């Protein structure tokens, strides 16, 4: 629980440290999926910390632990970044490949919310201009489209990033690597 809280607060390193200390603790895991869920939290912390190799190792570990027991719960209801990482690793999971396919099939059957739709090229063009604090009219002039077209693209960006403001959109886009470093630092 403490690791999940740290992860949600954006304290990825603290979450990772808590998870690495779990094997040292005396208290046994009460739920059979707790160790699997801990490994998946470790995957999320590793991804957020920019450690994809560690994330891959932890994902493989979680799949190996879950398959014999048939524990699908922590995977099926995992957050989008975890499912995206699992999906990106398909074809390279070895023995865990079949189980990963089952997990994704269960998600589809349960109609678990789909991965967010990718931004269109035009939405990415508008997104690159959001950190500049230019007005909708100025962005429209830059892209040689109407202000209403820019507003439509901004609404699409907000929906796909699940945000409600320009500031949130820029923050989430930076966090997800959707903005180039030089563009993200360009604030007028």
Question: Can you give a write-up of this model?
Answer:
- α2 runs antiparallel to α3 (34-48), α3 runs antiparallel to α4 and α9 crosses α10 (147-161).
- It contains twelve helices and no strands.
- The model is unreliable at 181-188 (pLDDT under 50).
- The longest helix has 18 residues, at 52-69.
- The protein is mainly α.
- It has two domains: 2-109, no CATH class; 121-184, Arc Repressor Mutant, subunit A, CATH 1.10.10.
List its traits.
single chain; 188 residues; mainly alpha; Arc Repressor Mutant, subunit A; 2 domains; elongated; disordered C terminus
Write the layout of secondary structure elements.
Blueprint: H1 2-8, H2 12-20, H3 34-48, H4 52-69, H5 73-76, H6 80-88, H7 97-109, H8 121-129, H9 136-143, H10 147-161, H11 166-175, H12 181-184
Helix pairs in contact: 1-2, 2-3, 3-4, 8-10, 9-10, 10-11
Give a short summary of the structure:
The chain has 12 helices and no strands. By secondary structure, it is mainly alpha-helical.
Low-pLDDT regions: 181-188
Instruction: Tell me the number of helical segments per DSSP (H or I, 4 or more residues long).
Output: 12
* Beta-strand residue fraction: under 5%
Annotation, overall tally of beta strands: 0
């Amino acid at each position: 629980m403490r690791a999940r809280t740290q992860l949600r607060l954006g304290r990825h390193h603290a979450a990772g440290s808590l998870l690495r200390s779990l094997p040292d603790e005396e208290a046994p895991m009460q739920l059979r999926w707790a160790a699997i869920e801990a490994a998946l939290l470790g995957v999320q912390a590793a991804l957020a910390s920019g450690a994809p190799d560690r994330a891959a190792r932890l994902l493989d570990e979680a799949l190996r632990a879950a398959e014999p027991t048939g524990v699908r719960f922590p995977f099926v209801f995992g957050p989008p970044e975890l499912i995206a990482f699992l999906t990106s690793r398909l074809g390279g999971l070895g023995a865990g490949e079949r189980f990963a396919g089952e997990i994704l099939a269960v998600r589809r059957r349960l109609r678990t919310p789909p991965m967010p739709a990718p931004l269109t090229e035009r939405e990415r063009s508008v997104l690159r201009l959001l950190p500049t604090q230019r007005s909708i009219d100025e962005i429209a002039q830059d892209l040689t489209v109407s202000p209403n077209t820019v507003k439509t693209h901004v609404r699409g960006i907000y929906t796909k990033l699940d945000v409600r403001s320009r500031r949130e959109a820029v923050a989430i886009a930076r966090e997800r690597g959707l903005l180039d470093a030089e563009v993200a630092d360009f604030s007028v």
